[in-house]
Amino acid sequence: MVYLHLALVVLAFLGHVHADCTMYEMCVNDEGKKVNCYNKVPVKPKELKDPNVAEQLKTICPRLFNKDKPTFCCDDAQAQYTTTMSAMSNIFGRCPTCVKNILANVCEFSCSPDQSNFVKVKTHGTNGGKDFVKSIEVTILEEYMNTTYESCSRVALPSSGGVVIDGACGEGFNSFNCNPTRFFDYLGNGNPVAPFPVYYKSTDNENLAAKTESKNCNELFEGSDPDSMCSCIDCPSLCTIDRYKPEATAFEIWILNGYTFIVAIVLAAVVTIIVTVLAIRSTRKKSMDDGSIVEHKTSSDNDKNSDIESKDQMLGSRKNVVNEFLQKIFRAIGIAMATHSILVICLSSWVVIGIGYGAFDLKVTTNPVEIWAAPGSRSRIEKDYFDTNFKPFYRTNQIFIKTVGISTFKHKYYENEITLGPAFNRTFLFEVFKLQKKIEEIGQAEGKGLEKVCYSPMTNEFTGPITIDRCTVQSLLGLFGNDLEKFMSLSDDDYLDTIISCARTPYSVKCLAPYGGPVEPGLALGGMTLDDYTDATAVGLTFIVANKLDIDELEPAMEWETKFVDFMKEEVDQGHISPLMDIAFSAERSIEDEVERVSKSEMVTILISYAVMFIYIAIMLGHFRSFRTILLDSKIILGIGGIIIVMCAVICSLGVSGYVGISTTLLTIEVIPFLVLAVGVDNIFIMVQTHQRAKGMDHLSIPEKVGETMAKVGPSMLLTSLSEICCFAIGCLSDMPAVNTFALYATIALFFDFILQITAFVALLALDEARVKKNRLDLFCCIRLSSVDDISDDDGFLYGIFKKYYTPFLMKTWVRYTVLVLFTILVSISIAVIPTMSVGLDQEMSMPEDSHVLKYFEYMKDLMGIGPPVYFVTKGGIDYADETVRKKYCGGIACNPSSITTQLFIASGQTNITYISRQPSSWIDDFKDWSEMDTCCKYFNNNESFCPHTIETCTSCTYNPAESWPDYFDKYLPFFLNDNPDPSCGKGGHPAYADALHWELNEQYNIEVKSSYMMTYHSVLRSSKEYYEALKYARKIGENLTLTLDIDGVEIFPYSVFYVYFEQYLTIWTDTVQSIGFSLIAVLLVTFIITGFSFLSSIVTLLVVLMIVIDMAGLMYFWDIMLNAVSLVNLVMSVGIAVEFCGHIIHAFERSQEPTAIGKATHALSSMGSSVFSGITLTKFFGIIVLAFAKSQIFKIFYFRMYLGMVIIGALHGLVFLPVMLSFLNKQF
Q: φ, ψ for residue 16 (rounded to 5)?
């Protein structure tokens, strides 16, 4: 046995020493193609006859020329064919080491003198008496196989954002599951350019394998140019630039912000300790305790007068002067309006009509971009720049289709048995494809089909008119040529293998859809958890429509989208959809349409809410003595008049805006009346109830009585109204159109509401008083009661409750201390949770409950497998032909290690931080590769104009390194942008880059690229936070790229279609703090002035308002209300409304003649508490409750929840905490 083994070794050695050729010369096969001849009798290697051919072969096979007179197993024709076939490796040309590794093997089995040692002809044929090769087996070293695969595995394909290996590992394999064996199987047996199948066999025995040298991608072959080293993008081990780092984690305690948590704990502890100490001291000094209302009531008149004198001295003259001045002003206004009541009402109506006429010119917008992004905002400027210099982002019309009642199943895919998701079921797919064909028929009868409006990136002057097949449709049917019959004719194994293979290698030539591009598996399949999509539970149909800047040009697209939505609704509603499918759909116009529809649909809810408040106001303004006098004492007409005044204020707001040309939204028009009614109705209640409760004024005339009423309530009305107007006026400074517009309309409406209340409503009050004096019935003024008892001194049920029960209870010592502690704890909890509040506005919240878009949003989050595209735009003219500039951009050979393309590549490898999921498509790299490929650049001989590379009669214009690159760039860049890719020239730039450059010809007819972009993709984004975090990090990347480019006047910025909606959240906390801060300052200043420069009363008002806002923010956290433009408006509004709950009581406290702080607090709460409760709290409460039945989430969450919180929290602070706090101020006022 030992001798036999030795003999075999010797024979193998002898065979190696005396190697010869098994393939020599060229023959013609059965198909008429030239292939290698098969030598049944081995032929000895020979020298090449043509020195030019030898020189060409030496450039790609230098190892074969390692002796003076080399011999080869190929003649001149074979050698020339070998150099031509070497072009097949150009697709890996970005990494010369990879190319040389591959060519080393090609050279060995094609021309090596040792060919017979490692090449075996497996099959051969005969034609014309000559034997030709059909297939061969090549033995290679396993080390060579592994090293070559490693050097090629990460070579990028810029136009796809992927790697070359995705389409160069055979059907069904990509970069995720490729390996050295599969790679060489593709090179030899799956490569469509290979002349015949080559089967590779690996071995560790160097004597049995080809003598091929191989290098890792981070190494160079001997004699190579140092600048030919592979780039970082194509060989990650060469990357030297810093990777992106995650932002520092905030200091947290549990899940809360650590700093605010500590502040909250300290605040609660300090206040609790102080209150406890005060309570203990109060208990020990009962004799000095002035907290008992009983003691207060028994104080002697002399003591009371003495305290009043002390109080007058403390207030000082300035406070009295201001207060008296305001009282005189409002008394005069009251007398004047009451004296000329009819004239005032007529003049008011004429003014309202004149101003309101402007509302006919009002512009109402439903465009989400105009609503959420200011024209001067960065995102809007960048969007406008992108749309102007390139084409606007295409319009997406999409359907998600889930499987129903379909199970997973097994399938044998090559050597493995895999479990496939229900989305691969043939019956299900057949129903999906039938639906697709129906959609493609939409509008065909009228000549307005999809092909008239679709996005067709491969279409140019040489391809003919756009047809349905040339439209970009992302569907699995594209893998079968959009041919339903072809799909059904395939066996189960064939159609499944096709889908699985193309899901793994979407950019493979065999997987391109009829429109010329790939079927993106992340769009065509959904609901998967595996990287190869094999467990998909749903599919998608996406119809891409071209977008236009001109609205008129966009009309056909909008019309087709309307028909698409109508068709889908009809299919779903009438049960035409297969029971195997559950469908969600949306058109590009759907969101805008639904926003407009929800605004109109909520009109009924808004009107009901108004009606409830109308009825409540009309009823509660009156006074009840008996059923006989019920219509005498009621104030229905007066209440309706007050409501009409509110509507007039809104009309004036709309009119002024119409005259000035300020656009608005339907939502603003609907909410502003509600806001003005809710804010302004308290003045009506305060005014009427103060007038009703006036004592000792029977001797005065009606105008004088009305004047006294206005003198009492006017200053507090001015305080609350001016504070609210200032708050909303500050909101006008916001950059967000939604906030700015709302605040502007509210400011104008509140201003007119206040003016009309102190004029027209006062006139109505005087007329109503005259009616009562004459015993005329409300609603029926012509009817007069004969005799009526004097009006009772009873001030009403609520007034009695507050005076007799609620106020005495609240003023008990232990109750007051308890209130202080509880409210401190409440505000401390709110402080602790505020930083943890969610930020954003989920799109589905703006949709009505019955909207088809809601389901679409839900399915999109669950099923979408690819994120939105993001474009890194270079703004400013650059000479891209300049070698220095090119190296700053490109990511290939000899490019800067930290080039722009390289940085984006690094970012794509850190998706969890950067939200970038693919390496960029780099036109500057692909243009360079295209220019150097023999099969790409061509021109017509007669005029040297662009010629598609598929026309063989045209002349090649491949770049020659001896010529000027700037000249070549200027002349042939347009050719590249017109050339469509195919297997013979995969670098054609038309579909990927035709829209990526904005260029012009200068006076010298040289190209000037004004702007350009590189496209990549965000990762799948599912929440508002992920969207604005993606924007934030993209901008950070853009800033780094601008610094890298380092050219004056040129910047690189990121753009994606969603940026205009989510930019607001990058600064929402700053905007919130600023808006509320300015509002609080306005409240402080207004209160300080109106109260006669009373610093302490201003501070008290500010403190209570601040507590209300803080507690509102805490409520938002616990009630899952996100911070956004809508909630920010509500928080600003809560500042104004909070003043209502505080202002009247503080004013009553200051005007009180009681000697002690607790007495003044008791008087203020008793006299104004019932009016605040009935006029502010209950009025808003009943109107808000109706909003709970709204159809859209935005109304339920941001209006029902927040308004309800506003009312409850405001009432608790105004009617509980504020009186208690005032009771502790002693003689500070």
A: -70, -40
